[in-house]
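queue> holo job accepted (iron/sulfur cluster)
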Amino acid sequence: MQRSVRMEDISDGRLYTCNDLVKADTRDCQGCSACCKGMGHSIVLDPLDIHRLITYLGNTTQELLNGNIELNVVDGIILPNLAMTGTEESCSFLNKEGRCSIHSVRPGICRLFPLGRFYENNGFQYFLQVHECPKERTKVKVKKWLDTPNIKAYEQYINQWHYFQKDLQQMLESESDDMRKKVSMYILQEFYFKPYNAEMEFYGEFEQRLNMAREVFFVS
Ligand code: SF4
Ligand code: SF4
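queue> job finished
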């Protein structure tokens, strides 16, 4: 989700790579679950998030739509996000103890918080959102905070997915609502609903689907 804000208003003014130390470690959040509630549609899920969830829970994307996730328009394309439910508008994966019940497969945005990504020049770096998390935080290496194996492959995937969406959004600016809907249906089906082969490494299969989608939409 793209945001139009000034970096100096929301960050400490620095950009970080995955090897940098950043004051992001909330030390297990101890008693706080603030960013698991009232987040609206903002925890947008990428294809790896859904793949991890359905592999761990043993269900399908369609089944997740029964309360765990929902579909909304993000920058012109329909994408899934974590659903906030009940009177407290809590994530459905937040348990009674205020802990994440799917911690090992939590989505990328949950792993990232209170960091964000700043995209420029066909790449991205991380920044610290200084107003988003009330906890006293200590320094941690960005890649340790992300808790994601094979960080370079993950970052390449995040980058590919981001710039693909950006290209799609640009292409769709001059298209009809009907075309936007058709493109969104393709994206949902190919990247979110069609299961990834568990035997095959996710990133390789994702890249195949991405190359195919680029051919469909951008090669005339
Ligand atoms: S607001 Fe900060 S301390 Fe609270 S749950 Fe989120 S990351 Fe953890
Ligand atoms: S998936 Fe876990 S960490 Fe993310 S919002 Fe839900 S409960 Fe919180």
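queue> The CA atoms of residues 209 and 215 lie 10 Å apart.
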